[in-house]
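May I ask for a sample protein chain and its fold as tokens?
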Amino acid sequence: MSARAKGRTLIDRARAGLPVAWRDGEQWRHLDLEGAVAEGADLSGADLHRARLSGARLARCDLQNADLRYAELTGAELTGADLRGADLRGADLRDADLSAAALSGAVVDRITLLRSGWSGLPAWAAAALGLVVEGRPRSDLARAASVADPVRAGITEALLALGADGTGLMEAMDAVDQAWHRARQSEPPDAQPLREALAAALRAAVNVSVGLAKAEQGLEEV
């Protein structure tokens, strides 16, 4: 059976309420589900390792504990999908719409973040989303924004600017505070580090403002 035929079989089973989790004798890996229409399907526990799901319509799908390692999910519609506990290590989520998706306990790694084209997802943001990040990502690795929703994208951009792994506004303000204390203690007073810290904080503040402005503009277009 071809990868495409196996993909159709999997969706048909899900729609019929039949189990789709991997079992002995059922090899569901490397499926071709590109562009598949499966809104609301129960794919919990499904073996979708290296599956091709680009452009798939998976809104409101139950993907709890699904094996999505190295899956191609570029441009997939995952609005309201339940991805709790899913294994997303190595998956490509570029331009995927994750609006209102449940991500608590979903596992991602450095490869996921690199392939997905996300940038600057700090640890606190990952925790807020409920993601389990395997390893510590550096800046420029994760972006949790949907191109289909400019308001969400703008808000996310502002949030990332607030705390993007050492380059965000919160970190910049902390650097300003430390520079101020050092300037007071130096003899003679050296204000140059404080000027540089203030300039960096101002740049970070501009990035936050830009993100919020984009969100406001997107809201006006709704």
